[in-house]
Fold these 2 entries.
Entry 1:
Amino acid sequence: MLQNLERLDLLIAHYVSGSLPEPAHVLVGSHLEMHSPSAKLAGVMEEYAGDALNITPPVALSDAKRRLAEIFASAPPPEHRPRIFEKSRLPASLRAYVGADLADIRWKTKLPGLRHHVIEKSKEVETSFLWVRPGRALPQHGHHGLELTLVLEGEFHDHRGNFGEGDVSVADEMLDHRPIAGKRGPCLCFSVLFAPIALSGSTLRLLGDIIGL
Amino acid sequence: MDVDERDHFAGLVRAVADERDQAAFTVLFDYYAPRLKSWLVKRSMRPDDAEELVQEVMAVLWHRAGLYDPARSSLSTWLFRIARNRRIDAERRARHKYLDVYEPLFFVTEAPGADTIFEGEERDAQVRAALADIPGEQMEMVRAAFFLGQSHSEIASSTGLPLGTVKSRIRLAFERLRRVLDDPSGE
Ligand SMILES: [Zn+2]
Ligand SMILES: [Zn+2]
């Protein structure tokens, strides 16, 4: 569990610096909305990021005068706010990414008591919602690549410990586990799975640091 | 940036918000635009695109200066956050055009937890003092890894430290941060 928390800290720092790939950025942003100690950590990291901007060696703009003039001549941007979903059960970051609310999801039953909905799938990443019946055990399994799981409702546990609402599990090739949903209610999760290919790519190089590649 | 400079910049933002003061804005632009460009280029953005995005970020300051609250963050942090979110947004637009683009100013930046980070000036001062106790060598690693965009192995080779030491210093810094935030008085 300690190792899991350490990895989460690194993810939060990458979130703040803006270096996470989008689905991971959404997952960590949702976690921050749900878990205030992590939001505090992110707040302090943002202050550091701002400080770092002050010591960044400036790079002159090629046409600063024109840019400045264009800003003064520009119209104020329209105040468009994100679509509001009344009484949504999803964190705002996740809602905006999915573009829909839970009620709109068309679940697929994978196994009795286990529903799945794929939000996005490419050769690098798959994001999905998982719904697990109270007390149901998932089959023992390993992982190809990095898997981040955010518990949205309910809880699950495995040999590492218990993951409640707002907690994030970080799993990789090194981890084999058999997650079991809590008994008190269904367990709803948002999951982001990176293929190993994604971690060797240069843009995601930093993400490899998280799992020590 | 020291407290005086911070206050000075906050005053300039107020002049922009209240009086549409172009001279005040120009001072802010001359300071921040080249630094934001530098940061974006380091984040492997093309210089032209970076400059375009810098203009976008600075235009937010020109039009929305009234939204900046000096009690909640430094101006550097506020602008950094807008730049970061705009950059992610630009990537998102490129990746999937079918998604509704949301307004990051009102959204990622305003995560509920982020509002209540510091409940008062006193607590703020306590946290800052406690943070100052974190050994410089640990914070240096955090800065290099996350804000100067270096990988752990790049830090290892530039400092001559073993990779394991780099990783453990970063880990220790986070441990200290979590502890300080849980209990800033250190009791
Ligand atoms: Zn936990
Ligand atoms: Zn798993």
Note: Chain A has one domain: 1-80+91-213.
Entry 2:
Amino acid sequence: MTELTKLTLSAARDGLHNGDFTSAEITAEHLNAIDDAKELNTYIEVTSDQAMNMAASADAMIKDGNAKGMTGIPIGIKDLYCTKGVHSQSASHILDGFKPEYESTVTSNLWNDGAVMLGKTNMDEFAMGSSNENSYYGPVINPWRATGSDKNTVPGGSSGGSAAAVAADISIATTGTDTGGSIRQPASFTGLVGFKPTYGRCSRFGMIAFASSLDQAGPLTKTVRDAAIMMESMAGYDAKDSTSINVEVPNYEAALTGDIRGLKVGIPKEYHSDGMPAAIEKLWQQGIGWLKDAGAEIVDISLPHTKYALPTYYIVAPAECSSNLARYDGVKYGLRVAGDSLDDMYKNTRAAGFGDEVKRRILIGTYVLSAGYYDAYYLKAQRVRTLIADDFKSAYQKCDVILTPTAPSEAFNLGDKVSDPLAMYLNDVFTVPASLAGLPGISVPAGLSSDGLPLGLQLLGQAFGEEQLLNVADVLETAAGFNIKPAKWWGE
Amino acid sequence: MSVDKETVAKIANLARIAVSEDELESTAGELNNILDWVEQLSEVDTDGVEPMTSVVAAALPRRVDEVTDGGYRDQVLKNAPASEHGFFAVPKVIE
């Protein structure tokens, strides 16, 4: 494939604005590259005709001098976002044939700025999973393989298709969603930047709900600058989402000053875990050194309730999921499986339409919310969640941002953890605490494991502290100098 | 607290998911693994701690109670597996 697919978003933007190439050209190149990478299974649906029409409109916008950061940029959209008239099923069988009559706010914002939709990306069904092996449309294959290995690895999840698409250069950037780490962990597994903003920064209107108090939109990109440009387009208050916050969207790119002198970076002692691979611990220490060299002050902090974050999450998220997914009943949209009575029709439809992991979480959620158990499980978890959020509040009295590893491992092989739900859940051990506290987080590619697979470092910020967070992430990215791409083994 | 086959059948009924007799046992095992693991929260002293209701401190927005949108019957029905006379159609519920 030619060079247009290798461009970062910011380079593509500059080239489009300068007239070096057109959106039609860059979009066509990406559509060809998608065709060449079918075996990665990243896209569930490719919207070629729509993409070329949108590219033509974008080129007109540029010609008329109305170009914005995202104008003419071809991107993939996670299947979880409702896109009018286009496949939007959260990779579930139960939404078979569903074509929304409306557009999500986040994608509307992107289209208004002239972005181009290449298609809908694969994901774990209803965003439940950490390996993208729970999709009705089959697993996504990570473009990265261990050195000298021909075994397929997972791209992480749940935004696995979105991550693999950018890593394989078949999308300049993609939208993801993050409930407990679903943007950051796949970014770490695929050598990308993955950015989850503060809860309420982006509208959730038109995002197919999983756990409403945690779900948040964000971009997967090749660089921190790209994430800044894309977030500015995605973010914003929306009257259609009462949890979106009416705070002005800043120019995030302008926040990338490269100057972090005097900034306090917290290192939480609880994030050192016994089983953590040496390469990850070493990379973390390197990251500390890089930020110190850039003039930041390193501060030891404590987040004492860290170990309780995952069990808290696995009560709160299933509870919300059991409630949100009650709407799939074979009546309003999607799959219907006949039954002798209305109740049997519901039960047959839901048994056939949901995958194993989704059913497991609905059952757990139903149990923890049921009479007699609500206080012991759900209320208890929400109390611990308050303590976890308080931990961060105390920590931010002493520091400005927090540096941790993104995930406790590199990308693992396809099939390795699929039969052990608890082992799979542990993937999110470093990402879930900030999710429970609603705080922004970003994963920055920082190095390789001993097997030659990418590893990310995570920076966590304060509520609506995205500008500072992106600025530190940019400094970390520059210092790490990670510029390795997966060796191409797929396609022609 | 652990769940047995009968409890799984009860939850599955509440969740309106058909679970076959053969699956009840294995499902109970899977759920117990997860429930045993989340049990560690009982170690945490949460006396006097308020349960989280919102991660960002914000008052819910209010607006005047007036119709601002609507009239989308056909769009709402467009994705329905079955609809008749402008309504969702379901199996007969009253004899």
Note: The mean pLDDT of chain A is 97.
